[in-house]
Structures are given as C-alpha cells and as structure tokens.
Amino acid sequence: MSILVAGGAGYIGSVTVERLSRAGHKVVVYDNLSRGHREAVPNQVTFVQGDIADSATLEKALREHKVDAVMHFCAHSQVGESVKEPFMYYQNNVQNGINLLGAMLRCDVKQFIFSSTAAVFGEPDAIPITEETAQHPTNPYGRTKWMFEQILRDCSDAHGLRSISLRYFNACGATELCGEDHTPETHLIPIVLDVAAGKRESLGIFGRDYPTQDGTCIRDYVHVSDLADAHIKALEALGKGAATNIYNLGNGQGFSVLEVVQAAEEVTSRKIPCINSPRRAGDPARLVASSDRIREELHWNPQIADLRRIIETAWKWKLEHPNGYGSAPAAAKDRFAS
Ligand code: UFG
C-alpha cells in the first residue's frame, strides 16, 4: 500500500515509518519540520516538506503518490504549552486536521489512522482505563484530541472515511535509528536520562503528595516500537474493511515517577539526583490503560513491555546521540533499508 505519514519526521511517526517500510509499504513522509527532524527520515523514503494547512501541496502529494491511507502524527502535544497557547493547539490539532481530512476526501483517500492520547480522559474515574471510561480532558491538548475523535466519527458516518484512533499512554524508548529528541524536552524518561548523562544536574519531581503509594504520579509507559506496530495492525484492519474505531494503547502496568528513577539508576548504573518540586498543573495522579480491546480485536501484543528494557533502549540511543539528531552518525539513515 502507499501510505502518507503526516508528521513522519517526529518521534512516534519516524518509528512507524521504519516499521511500514520494513513491512514493504510505499511510504511518503509529509512534514513541515517545525518539530520533526529531517535526519529521522531515511534517505530511501520519499519526503515532502509541507504543512497540513497547505491543501494544494497535500493534494498534490496524495495524488502523485497514489496514497491509499494516511497516518496523522503531526499535532502539537505538550500539555503545558496548550494551556498557555490554546489557539495554537485548536488551530493545528483541530483546524489543520480538518484540512487534512478535506484533502483526503477530495482525493478519494478514505483510510485514516489517528494519534490520540490518554489525555482525553483527564482524571479518570477508575483504573484501568478502558475505551468506555468517561472522558473529561483537563487541558486544551486533551480537548483537541477528544474533539478530533468526534470529528472522525462524524466524518465516517457522513463520508465513509474510516479511521482508527489510537490513544497512546506514555510513549517512550527508542529503536536502533530513531529516538526522542524534543526541544524543549518535557518528558520524564529523556529528562531522567539527561541527568544520568550529566547534561542536567537533577530531576525535579513534580509533586510528592499524590494519593499513590510513594506520593508521585503513576503512568503507563509503552515502547514506541510497540506503538508503531499497533499502527501496522490498524492499517491491516482498515484494509480488511474494519469500521471506525478507537483503541487504548498501554502496557496495563503503572509505574510511579520514583520507580522510573530507580529503574533508570539500575539501567545506567548512575545516581540520578532528584529535587522535590511543586505539582505540574493538569497532571492526573494515575493513568493506567486497559488495552484488552486492541489485544483481542487486532492481536496487538507489546514486545518490549518491561520498564527496564524500555529504558535500556532509550539509554542506548541517548549514548549514541548525545545531542539528539544533530549528532546522528551520517551513515545511520542509510542503514535503514538493509
Ligand atoms: N515528571 C516529573 N518531572 C519532570 C517531567 C515529568 O516529575 O521533569 C512527571 C510528570 O509530572 C508525570 C510523569 O513524570 O507525572 C510523566 O510525565 P511526562 O511529561 O513524561 O508525561 P505525561 O504523563 O505528562 O504526558 C504524556 C504525553 C501526553 C499524554 C500522556 C498520556 O506527553 O501527550 O502522556 O499519559 F497525553
């Protein structure tokens, strides 16, 4: 199949491009490089620099490459930023997303895989979180993703554009070629590893007074290559005629911030100094997924579910790319196709 990966130069998008190419699909990465990295896209993969707000460039890419399905990764995804800049989030994540759907419909492309998030749930009523758990997003980021899920349902009913929305819990880890490189970095595991690598002095622990066993927040950490595999399975399902659907994607096991720090100290054999800091606005105490639905219906089975193993992959990438993609070995991109 020919797949357009919007946001394929970003963290989860680039790993999915790796998987799609290995599975024999023709891949077109469509990315404006505002947050993604050109170095994350292998030379063998077609790259179009464009914005999803730009209908003409989008439609040209969809037609020229005879695209069968679109995967959409190119949203803004930082909770704190979304609180400060809500218009930016509604514009990119909702308005530009609608623009992408419009271009698809005009080009008669009717299969779509959407990167959604556990942030649609806000502070959940019960753990583990199923697809039916009530959704009360607590920040603009979560609301944009929740809205887009509703838009996709309406689009499916009205126009027959079938979609699968994948609600990621805490994406982390790296593959041989692709890893996490955000500016600024806000996520726990890369920050913890920056401390281990001596690039930061300490980790600020955001809140020690949550109603959890050690007072720190609990999250469900899921390896980025397992997330990528879920996209392949979703694509196959759509190809076989699956109806529009939504799935949670997590390992079903929660780890506190302190447990992540301890695991990282074991993996790196380095001490990670921590400082108690105030709670971060909008952080729910506990987010742990039930992914039973995708396991049963799409036979998704995470391969790197162990937290230490996940951190090992991220640590290896960090050691090989001490300054992120800026320090990638020149030949790395070419190793990809072999
Ligand atoms: N944390 C710290 N110190 C830091 C960074 C994070 O204590 O310097 C804590 C956070 O407070 C939180 C946990 O570590 O309790 C994980 O934080 P991340 O920023 O790594 O991830 P979030 O859980 O905030 O958010 C991530 C994605 C969201 C997604 C969410 C779903 O960034 O897009 O997972 O679980 F919605």
Question: What features would you describe in this structure?
Answer:
The two termini are 20 Å apart. The chain has helices at residues 11-22, 55-64, 79-84, 86-106, 140-159, 188-196, 224-239, 257-268, 292-298, 307-320, 332-335; strands spanning 2-6, 26-31, 46-49, 69-72, 111-117, 162-168, 170-172, 203-206, 218-219, 221-223, 245-249, 255-256, 274-277. The protein has a single domain (2-335), classed as Rossmann fold. The radius of gyration is 19 Å and the shape is globular. The strands form four sheets. Strands 3-2-1-4-5-6-11 form a seven-stranded parallel β-sheet, sandwiched between helices. A two-stranded parallel sheet has the order 7-10. A two-stranded parallel sheet has the order 8-13. The chain is α/β, with parallel strands linked by helices and 338 residues long. The protein has eleven helices and 13 strands. Helix 8 (257-268) crosses helix 10 (307-320). Bound molecules: uridine-5'-diphosphate-4-deoxy-4-fluoro-alpha-D-galactose. Residues 77, 79, 117-119, 169-170, 186-188, 191, 203-206, 217, 219, 257, 280, 283, 287 line the site of uridine-5'-diphosphate-4-deoxy-4-fluoro-alpha-D-galactose.
